[in-house]
Amino acid sequence: xxxxxxxxxxxxxxxxxxxxxxxxxxxxxxxxxxxxxxxxxxxxxxxxxxxxxxxxxxxxxxxxxxxxxxxxxxxxxxxxxxxxxxxxxxxxxxxxxxxxxxxxxxxxxxxxxxxxxxxxxxxxxxxxxxxxxxxxxxxxxxxxxxxxxxxxxxxxxxxxxxxxxxxxxxxxxxxxxxxxxxxxxxxxxxxxxxxxxxxxxxxxxxxxxxxxxxxxxxxxxxxxxxxxxxxxxxxxxxxxxxxxxxxxxxxxxxxxxxxxxxxxxxxxxxxxxxxxxxxxxxxxxxxxxxxxxxxxxxxxxxxxxxx
Length: 307
Prior knowledge:
The protein is elongated and about 75 Å long. It is of the alpha/beta class. It has 10 helices and 10 strands.
């Protein structure tokens, strides 16, 4: 027989552990902070275990509290997702994807028509995501650039994040070697200040510093490069379609690993849900196809560079 001890207390504890305070948990559950504190105290008494260390300005989980919360949060997430599915109209199949704006614009959206052909009954909803944005409660999955270590999430690699300078064919014709690059023409991305120094160091260029226009997103810098403003640091897979269409070219054969990868991220309970499974199967195949084309393109660039 299943034994559930004081479910309201369990909910109060999980919300407080996840949010870090009784006040935030109370706001989430529409009760007072004092009520949350009382329910957690009663839960601790019934369990015979201390879950929180009460400190002056914050709560700190004990070892038992951390273990309990790490198991409870996925259970409540799964329950929330299941409830949403049951409440949705039977004809509605929705997959919500958290993804950064440049990834959505430069890689995902141009390929969504193919997914719609394969799975016409699934509606994909795209919301702003990225490594700096918390994984949304309503997300089915997300796509993130990083090291793959996101607590509470499964992370499956999609792409290597390789760096390569890109520009218009006209500008590329003036660049015979990396030392021809000039700082004022090197377009920058504010949150990726390490990209140009990493590539230039690997290329053996020591007297060039990127001083070109700075943009908030890679997508803005790449569009500026397409418009002839300068040389942008391209990151795969953002540049795949622009290179294939000839809007941009890579004037040098050298590509440098950024030190991070792109991952499909999701909560473990999603693995058994059919719409997510369909999307996962599709994006894994699409990512593999992109990797094959990139490898062929790199081989072609290297061959042209040696001729």
